[in-house]
Structure formats: structure tokens, C-alpha cells
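Example 4.3 (complexes with small molecules)
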Amino acid sequence: MMMQMLRNRLLLVVLLFVPLAGFAHVGSSDVYYDGYAGQYHLLVTVRPPSVIPGVAEIQVRSAANDLGQVEILPLRMVGPGADLAPRPDVAERSSADPQLYSGHLWMMDRGSWRVQVNVDGQHGKAQMAVPVPAVSMNSASMQKSLRGLLGVLGFLLVAGFVGIVGAANREAKLDPDKDPTPGQKLRGTIAMVFTAFLMFGVLFSGNRWWGKEAKDNARLSYRLPHVQASLQAATLQLHLENPNESSQFTQFGTERIDRLRLDDLIPDHGHLMHLFLVRISDMKSLWHLHPNQDQTGEFSQVLPSLPAGHYRIYADIVHHTGFPETEVGEIDLPAIAGQSPNGDDSGGAALSAGDKVSQLSDGYRMVWERDATALKTKQPIWFRFRIEDQNGKPATDVEDYMGMAGHAAFIRDDGEVFAHVHPSGSVPMAAAEMAQKAGSAANHASGTDMTMDMTMMNHGTPSAEVAFPYGFSQPGDYHIYVQVKRGGRVETGAFTAHVEN
Ligand SMILES: [Cu+2]
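Answer. The structure with copper (II) ion bound is encoded below.
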């Protein structure tokens, strides 16, 4: 028990020296969520740690100046820990910006979490919850300079120890100003050799112990899952992999309820999978499709007409725990003469992206309402888009598309970053709903009546303007694809964005 604790402490100390890399799913680990706690309109940003256990950074911004105190606490989404609320932390109110609160939370385990936000203010108490997937993206390695410094210090420590033992055996019983006898010298040398061997043994077994620990830890790092795609006639066949599968039971023999499996997928706004296909060479052909599940891990999609090229594949799925994954893949496609997209499928073969304006059909336009300030990483930004008719008037026929006012995909031009975002933010709706329900169930059980109104989640009201809260984790050149439904068909606006660090 003591050893275990010591080991964890040691690991922790090492982890604290490691800079947080902010790399997840497909390079966009930060969570942005816009929603309501009762009548309070909040934008919550969660920056999960890149190594678990680790510290998540939480920011809560209220839309109006109506808040007093904000508390935050981390909870598991499912399983035994889901109802065991720890004592909440009080988020600190920014002195420069009274509508901004921030705090830190420890996430001790990998898996599906929710951050519960308890607020108190002008409209009484209320709460909401934000789903947060927590994974270790890497086994963080120590910085070279730190490794060198610790190595030198460690050597001095060992050499000093050997020297002390030698001196103690040689000269401890010596009177002042006397030289040691040959016998005492020999005794000292033997003691030093013996101590050196002993220290070598200790260091050697310590290193082996550490190496084993590091290997175990590395095995638990999250590996980006890949989808194998092949084409049969005009049908895309998809085979999902599950590289992060763990055993069904924990070391204590209890079932690992949140282990990743492929037979537990839940629909996210009506579909088990949201598939994005983008031709990386020019970013002009983008498709948002919804393949059918034929059996566990196997999906298929009849393709619409699309131009030949090398396509990147992003397959979004959500597990029963609310844990989202994006499986990535690539495929070379010939020109496909398929059917026109049906159902919720949509996209475009020749989208030309502007930095402010994107042409839609019938002379309509989509306008990105951006100001002149440069886009920077790690900032929550509202991306607002306005749909205009041929006369520049706001469109009046915008309607709901898959339960939402709009869908956006942020894709870096090299394909290494991908995020599927909604007016409510970067979390899948299925996970967001699960987090709210878990919260209200727990409150109900504890006798606290804080009703949470599902309709208060921000799906966005279909109108001529649609807005998405999101922030870039990494700099680079991006394409932003914004999809809205207008006059019975889905339109895709495309924009370019340069993001600075
Ligand atoms: Cu969507």
C-alpha cells in the first residue's frame, strides 16, 4: 500500500514537469460548450490534461452579468463513481472580467467524465454539466535538460554516499591529526566497493521497476483509431478498429463498465455515424454522410456523385458512456457517378472557399461575420455566419438540419486536425444530453430539486444567423465548412482561416 502510494507520488512528480501538449482525438482536445444552467446562459471551456491523472482547466463565462458564485466538480459519466460527488471547488472570478470564472479540476482516471457547474445568482441556484472525454495522449517523456540535470545530481548523490561510507569506515574512530592505518584504509576501501555495488543494485532494480511502470502506462495511452475503407461499386465499406480495447474486468474483478467497445454505439442526432469525406489536395470536395451499421464495427455508405481524388475520412461515433471517438482513414476514389445525396447526407463537389464570403445556390451567400483581429489558438471564439439572399437580405427560409440550426466542420489543410461543431459547441449532442440527465438523476436521488430543462440546451434556433463556439488547439491553415438547411436542401458554405499560435 505504501509502495503503491509512493509510486503514484513519484509518477505525479514526473508528470508535473511535463508541458501539456493539448493533443487529442484529431488534434482538437479542448471542449467548448454553450448552454443554460436554469436561466443562466453559460459558455464553458474545458482544457483536459494530455496525461491522466492530470489537471483540467475550466473556464465559465456568463452571457449576462447575473452570476454570484460558480462551483465546479468532476464526475464520472457512468459507473459507481457517477453519483459520488466530491466536494465542489469554487471557481475564481476574474478581477479584470467579472463575467469570467476559472478553476482547475483533477481527472484521476481515463474515460468519460462530466464537469458539473453549479451556479448561484440573481435567478437562484441552477446547474448544468459538460461531457469531457479524458485520455492520456502520450507517455510524456522528461525534458532532455531536466534528465541531464537529474542525472548529474543523482550521480553526485551516489558518489557522495559512497564517499561518506568510505570515510566513516576509515576515519570515524580516528583521533584528530592522525592518519589512518593501512588496516583502516583497507576497511574504508572495502566498504566503498561494497556500497558501490549495493547502490548499483538499488539503481538497477529501481530502473527496471520504473521501466515496467512506464511500459504499463504507455499501453494505456490513447491510440487514434483508424477506419479501413474500400470501395465496392459505388458503396464505401468501412471497417472500424478498436485499438484501445481493454479487458472486461478491472484488477479487482469488477466489470470495467466504460471500456471501449464497438457494439455499444449510440445515435448522435439520429445517426450512429457521422462520416466526413474531404479531398485534401484542394479542400473543395466535402461530404457529410451517415453510413449504416451492417454489423459491429462494419458500416457501409452508398456514395453520392463526387470527383476523383485522395480523400481523408473522419468517422464520428459516440459510445454508450458518452465517450466520443473520431476514426480516421484515407482512400483514393475514382470519379463516382452516384445518386444525389439523400436523407441527411449533404456536401459539395466544387466548394470555393472565401475568407469572408461563400457563394451558395440561387445567388444566396453565406457571410462570416468576422472582425479584423487575427485568429489565435486556445481562445474560445464565436464563429457567426449570416445567410443572405440575392439582394443581401437575411434569408427567411432557414430550417432545422438534424435537430440543429447548423453543423460546422473545422479541418486543418493537412488533415491532421478535425472538429465537428454545433451551436452548442464541440461536444456530441448525445454526450451532452447524457451529462444533463445524469446530473438531474443524481440531484433527484439526493432530494435536491433542480430541474434541468432539456429544451434549454443550445441547439440554435434556425434563422439567418448561425453561431458556433469553438477554439483552435493548434495553429495552421484551416477550412471551415458550415452547413445549414434552406428551402428544403442543405447548403455548404466554405471558408479559409489562418490561425496563429
Ligand atoms: Cu453535426
